[in-house]
Amino acid sequence: MGQMTSKMIRPLPRRSRFRGEPPARRSLLRRVLRWGGFASILVAAIVFGGFLRFADSISTMRPPAKPKADAIVVLTGGYQRIDQAVDLLRDGAGKRLLISGAHPSTTPNQIRKMTQGPAELFSCCIDIGYDALDTIGNAREAVNWIHSRGYKTVLVVTNNYHMPRSLSELRYVDPETEFIAYPVVNSDLKTKNWFSDPNAMRVMLAEYGKVLLASARNLTGFGRHAGLRSETTTAEKGP
To answer: What's the whole-number average pLDDT of the chain?
Structure first.
């Protein structure tokens, strides 16, 4: 009787999470999960390494000592950018300046007063673009202006953290023109101590994410939108 009881209560075989699957399929599933885990770790390491490289390039970015080009394009987003672009034009770094992406309600006189630029400089040599909605639109608006005037070399003025994406979009639209970076250095990102500042870290992470999305979009061609007020309005109205 004791022997029978011992046999009756022997432990049941351990159930596999792949119970019911043939041995060959269970083995394949394990390999897929194992290599999928390795691939996820590798992708995460590449993305993190790319972020460190991106952050280092931003924090060490400096404008050229003696900038010179046919023309200057500044992407709106703060009057500090426009101030520096107007100063570059005044110093002869370019023949003409485009302020790209201005809000339709902003007048040339308002921009001139904010930058304290000479009225004659705004009258003769500064154009204001109102069509761009975002960085993609900035690139298209700028390239249309560049081609209409036949410029070959262009200084690009924007914040240092925004420069990589801006150059990427400009070169995607126009690979022939030489675009020269003139970064406006954000005070929070001047040193490598940005990682101890939550605001600077947030700016870095957000912009790095946008750079990755822009790179994927430009590589595949999917997800590109008009970026221009004129084309967006036309599309909304329909035929």
So the answer is: 83
